[in-house]
Amino acid sequence: MTKNISGFSKLSKEEKIDWLSNNFFQNPTDAVNIIKQYWNENQALQNLHDDFIENTITNFYMPFGIAPNFLINGKEYVVPMVTEESSVVAAASLVAKFWSTKGGFKTTVLGTKKIGQVHFMFAGKKADLEKYFQENKTELFAATASITKNMEKRGGGILDIELIDKTDKLANYYQLHITFETKDSMGANFINSCLEAIANKFRNDEIEIVMSILSNFVPECLVRAEVSCKIEDLGVENPQKFAEKFYQAVKIAEIEPYRAVTHNKGIMNGIDAVVLATGNDFRAIEAGAHAFASRSGKYTSLSHCTIDNGIFTFWIEIPLAVGTVGGLTSLHPMAKMSLEMMQNPTAKELMQIMAAAGLAQNFAALRALTTKGIQHGHMKMHLQNILNQLGATKNEKNTLIEFFKNQTVSHAAVVSKFNELRTPKITWVDFLDESFIRQKLESLSLDSKPIFGLMNAQQMIEHLSAITKIANGNWQVDVFVSDEKSATRKPFLDTENELEIGFKPNLLAEEPNPLQFESIEKAIDDLIFQVQLFVSNFNENPTKTVVHPFFGELDFDYWKKFQTKHFTHHFKQFGLI
Fold first, then answer.
1. Where are the beta strands (DSSP E) in 295-422?
2. Which family does the record assign (predicted)?
3. Mean pLDDT score of the chain, rounded to an integer?
4. Where are the alpha helices (DSSP H) in 58-144?
5. Residue 304 annotated as catalytic
6. Mind listing the pLDDT tens digit for each residue in 81-138?
7. Which domain holds residue 280?
8. Based on the domain organization, do 175 and 307 belong to the same domain?
9. Is 504 among the residues known to form the active site?
């Protein structure tokens, strides 16, 4: 049965949710509950969010973080960042604080021009087209007068209109290339409205308008951010070596596209987070930045570095077409709050803040890569996410965070340590504690029932003695364990794992051995004697080794590890621990 639907947009929100949950979820009730738990209790605010896009059914939360200590052109900023990626906010904060003691970020807006284009086809003579354009250029400006009036009052508007010949790339293809200044507005709607008015005025019977649209490639809407200090002030153990490696890392990103893409992605981690927090268009910013990185015909780094005359300098030049008025920046309460916490910057100031955030993020990533490695810091920040996924309690989180302070964090390591915390602790038997061993074993009788296995209580005690005799040399067993097998089996003794139920070396019979002593008491005495002999024999010859019938050749320490596991195994057999 088809799940296509007609008139979906005309359904109420509740009707949309009902149709969606009943057709695409195995448990519709759970799906509806999740959708509704993200609704805002304030109905007016929820209605505002519902109207941002079409077919809205709920809100999708993203973490909103704060990076303090940014010093930009001598002015202190707190920078809001919206991102799902751990370590981004922490890295930006740490780097901002680091550079705030060294003069902070120096930023300059190199240009604010934005571009729109009318794409059209013309099959006639180029000279005729050029004449037509020159004769009508003033009229093209006039066609947008009603649209540009308010923008011009703020110092913006259309800067120029050019006729561009692209027929060498595509037959009969020309364009009107129009330059705009939109001041504090991102200006997408303004630019597109102007372009449509210009296209309508420019078209004639010989000119076929294909489309009119702004460009997100804005190489003249450019900002530069820079940090610099003496190499000796870089705050690492070997600053000259660090500076050289850092410089090499940037140079690699300049010449190697595979590295440059990841390098620039790190820059955009910082920039996109601020773009999102301020309600700007991060897709447009991303597209423009990556196009700018490719402007030479080869994809390259957006940031650059020098280490000349003992001075470390690191900078970025990047196109950022952003706005602080209009659109979502004026509608979304959190976007408005973000701008307020940054002291209500102009579009130019916001460009500079974003560039500084991108440079900070890039510095943090390269510093990590050229010192401890990117995963060291990233995975520590990711630790909280892993613990949340595992459902760790507050106490478990505190324990694991403390444990991993000086440990390398990996997903596997965290899961292993978490499982270790959740696994009931093993009470290992101290087989050298004579008083404890006697007390536990003397509670047994021939009528004591084992939890597993076939041996009765006395047979179990005599079995512990027999295995101890092997270590003492009092039971000569004809057994050979190859080095290869020993190498794979012996590491088990170093683990916290227990002997499995049913563990049995080949030399042992399937059925329990006949009793050797007339009572449990005498069997216990013999076991205590064998353990004492075990210790004294190895004390007399600390370097000796004795072959274990399963694990191979073991020294005193490994025999103790085996005996601990073995005694624990059989004490559990009779519920003694």
1. 303-308, 311-319
2. Belongs to the HMG-CoA reductase family.
3. 92
4. 88-100, 126-142
5. no
6. 999 998 899 999 999 999 999 999 999 999 999 999 999 999 999 999 999 999 999 9
7. 65-106+237-375
8. no
9. no
Backbone angles phi, psi at 548, to 5 degrees: -90, 140
Task: Respond yes or no: is residue 152 known to be catalytic.
Answer: no
What does the pLDDT read at residue 380? 62
Which of 359, 377, 370 has the alpha carbon at shortest distance from 246? 370
Among candidate residues 124, 218, 137, the one with its CA nearest the CA of residue 165: 124
Name the one residue in this structure whose structure tokens are 């210790």.
535
Confidence band for 509, pLDDT divided at 50, 70 and 90 = low
In a domain, 2, yes or no: no
**Which CATH number covers residue 205?**
3.30.70.420
71 and 41 in a common domain: no
Q: Which of 16, 263, 378, 382 is catalytic?
A: 378
Candidates 49, 97, 177, 265; catalytic one: 265
pTM assigned to the model = 0.69
Which of 281, 349, 462, 526 is catalytic? The answer is 281
CA–CA separation, 127 and 137 (whole Å): 15
Question: What is the per-residue pLDDT across 44-84, written as a single tens digit (0 to 9) for each?
Answer: 999 999 999 999 999 999 999 999 999 999 999 999 999 99
Q: Is 478 a catalytic residue?
A: no
Supply 207's token pair.
Answer: 């000119």
Distance CA 366, CA 15 (A): 50
Q: Are residues 447 and 566 located together in one domain of the fold?
A: yes
Q: Which of 18, 49, 85, 97 is catalytic?
A: 85
